[in-house]
Write a structure and sequence with these properties.
It contains 4 helices and 5 strands. Helix 1 packs across helix 3 and helix 3 runs antiparallel to helix 4. With 160 residues, it is an alpha+beta fold. Strand 3 and strand 4 form a beta hairpin. A 5-stranded antiparallel beta sheet has the order 4-3-2-1-5.
């Protein structure tokens, strides 16, 4: 796939090409949350923010018969989970809430160093209903948590 012709306004701190950035975030420029990471944000919250961005972008590619699902690559058999919500437990756990293929509730807690997710188009569970789109709701929570995060005070300069 050819890279997007536009040059981002800022250097992407993760080194992503414009085409990969567009696929992950739906934005050809550096994602705002990547640029706005606060130094006091836990690894779990940081991963949660990036997963939320990826879900929003992935949902934009889905038709009306599918909703976002996770293929849990770290579980035996690679179970697919219909995603209902995502969260974090600072400093280092990411939480996933959903349902299995038979409708049973699933909650997965993983350390940020062990998270491996494959976003998949999961056939919606109720064909007569609209597909479940969780990205917008998760992004609202991300934006609220970013806005509420205390900004670390600058360290005063000590002169000899």
């Amino acid at each position: 796939m050819a890279d997007v012709a536009t040059t981002p306004k800022t250097v992407d701190p993760m080194g992503l090409s414009a085409s990969v950035r567009m696929q992950l975030t739906g934005c050809p420029d550096t994602p705002a949350l990547v640029e706005a990471r606060q130094p006091n944000v836990s690894p779990a919250q940081w991963m949660y923010q990036r997963i939320a961005q990826a879900i929003v972008a992935f949902e934009k590619t889905l038709d009306s018969e599918h909703e976002v699902g996770f293929h849990l690559v770290s579980t035996s058999g690679g179970q697919t989970m219909h995603v209902l919500d995502v969260g974090f437990w600072a400093p280092d756990l990411v939480l996933f809430f959903g349902r299995s293929g038979d409708g049973s509730p699933i909650q997965l807690m993983q350390h940020v160093t062990q998270v491996n997710l494959m976003l998949v188009a999961a056939k919606k569970e109720a064909p007569e209903q609209e597909p479940n789109r969780i990205g917008f709701e998760i992004m609202k929570k991300v934006e609220e948590s970013v806005a509420a995060a205390p900004v670390a005070a600058p360290t005063p300069e000590v002169k000899p």
